[in-house]
Design brief:
By secondary structure, the chain is an alpha/beta fold. 46% of the residues lie in helices and 12% in strands. The chain is built from twelve helices and eight strands. Strand 4, helix 6 and strand 5 form a beta-alpha-beta unit. Helix 2 packs parallel to helix 4 and helix 5 runs parallel beside helix 6. The termini are far apart. The chain binds sulfopyruvate and magnesium ion (MG). Magnesium ion binds next to helix 3.
Length: 293
C-alpha cells in the first residue's frame, strides 16, 4: 500500500481546501514538495510542452511513466497523474493503472473525452465527449486493476468545456461516482468561478470536487472552499515561471554572447543544483562504498 495514495485520499476528504501544484519533471516536483504544497499535479499540458510536444497524446504511455517514476523516486508528496483519456480503451487503462501503482503514483485523473484529446483551452471541433457508458467502463477497469487499495481515481468531466451544459455535467458526475470514482474534477474555461459555483450548488457535496482555476485564478481560495471545492489544482504555474526565467537568460546570451551583465544572483547557484541532486549523498557513500585510495 502506498502512503502517498492514502495522503491524497485524506486531502480529498478533508473539510478544508487543499491544493496541488503542477510539476513537469523531478526537479520541479522537488521544489513543489519543499514548498510544503500538499501535493503534485503531473500535468499533461506542461509535461508535453516541456518535451517539445503538443498536449494531444503525442507522448506515449511509456514515456510519461518513465517521467513519473523519476518524480516518485525523489518525492514523497502525493502525485496525481493527469492521465488524459487513459491512452486507449479499458484495456490500456488497466495496464496504465497497474503501472502507476507499481511506481507509487497516488492517483489517476481521467477525462471523458475522445482519444487523442486536445487541451481543454484549445478551440477545436475535435473536443468531443466520450460516451458515459464507455467512460464508466474505463473507471471500473481502473478500480479493478489497482493493486493499491488507496489508489485514487479522479473522474474529470469536460461537459462544460465542450459547452454541453450543467445538466450534462451533473449527469456524468453522478454516473462516474456510481462507477467507482473517488472524486470529480469539474473543468471550466470561463473567466469566473460562477459556472463551477452553479455546479457545486446542485452537487450537494455528494463526493469530493476538484477544480482547475486557471481561467478564474483570481477567485479567493476561501470562496472556492466555502462553495465546496476539496482540491484546487494550480495546473501550469511552474513551467510558466521557468519559461519566463529561461527566456530572459537565453535572450541575454543571444544578444551579448556572454552572461556578463545578467544578474546572476537572481539565478539558482550551482551549489543549489547539487543540493537538488543530493550530491552530498553521493559524496558520503563514496567514503563507504567507493574504492578510492
Ligand atoms: C493539464 O494541466 O494538463 C490539465 C489542466 O489537464 S488544463 O490544461 O487546464 O486542461
Ligand atoms: Mg491535461
Amino acid at each position: 500500500m502506498s502512503s502517498a495514495s492514502a495522503a491524497l485520499r485524506a486531502l480529498l476528504t478533508s473539510p478544508t481546501l487543499s491544493c496541488l501544484l503542477e510539476a513537469y519533471n523531478a526537479a520541479s516536483a522537488l521544489l513543489v514538495e519543499r514548498a510544503q504544497v500538499a501535493g503534485i499535479w503531473a500535468s499533461s499540458l506542461t509535461i508535453s510542452c516541456a518535451n517539445g510536444y503538443r498536449d494531444n497524446n503525442t507522448l506515449s504511455m511509456s514515456q510519461v511513466l518513465d517521467l513519473l517514476e523519476s518524480i516518485t523516486e525523489r518525492t514523497t508528496k502525493p502525485l496525481l497523474f493527469d492521465g488524459d483519456t487513459g491512452y486507449g480503451d479499458f484495456a490500456h487503462v488497466e495496464l496504465l493503472t497497474r503501472r502507476l501503482c507499481a511506481r507509487g503514483v497516488a492517483g489517476l485523473c481521467m477525462e471523458d473525452k475522445q482519444l487523442p484529446k486536445r487541451n481543454s483551452f484549445v478551440e477545436s471541433p475535435s473536443q468531443q465527449l466520450a460516451t458515459i457508458k464507455g467512460f464508466c467502463g474505463k473507471l471500473q477497469a481502473a478500480r479493478e486493476a489497482a493493486t493499491d487499495d488507496d489508489f485514487v481515481l479522479v473522474a474529470r468531466t469536460e461537459a462544460l468545456i465542450v459547452g454541453a451544459g450543467l445538466d450534462e455535467a451533473l449527469e456524468r458526475a453522478h454516473a462516474y461516482i456510481d462507477a467507482g470514482a473517488d472524486a470529480i474534477l469539474i473543468h471550466s474555461k470561463q473567466a469566473s468561478f460562477e459556472q463551477i459555483a452553479q455546479f457545486l450548488a446542485r452537487w450537494e457535496r455528494r463526493a469530493p470536487i476538484v477544480c482547475v482555476p486557471t481561467t478564474y485564478s483570481q477567485t479567493p481560495v476561501e470562496v472556492m472552499e466555502e462553495a465546496g471545492v476539496s482540491v484546487a489544482i494550480w495546473a501550469n504555474y511552474m513551467l510558466r515561471a521557468a519559461i519566463t526565467a529561461m527566456r530572459q537568460v537565453a535572450q541575454h546570451v543571444g544578444q551579448h554572447r556572454t552572461i556578463t551583465g545578467f544578474d546572476e544572483l537572481a539565478l539558482s547557484s550551482v551549489a543549489d543544483l547539487f543540493e537538488l541532486q543530493d550530491n552530498a549523498g553521493l559524496l558520503q557513500n563514496e567514503g563507504r562504498f567507493g574504492c578510492f585510495e
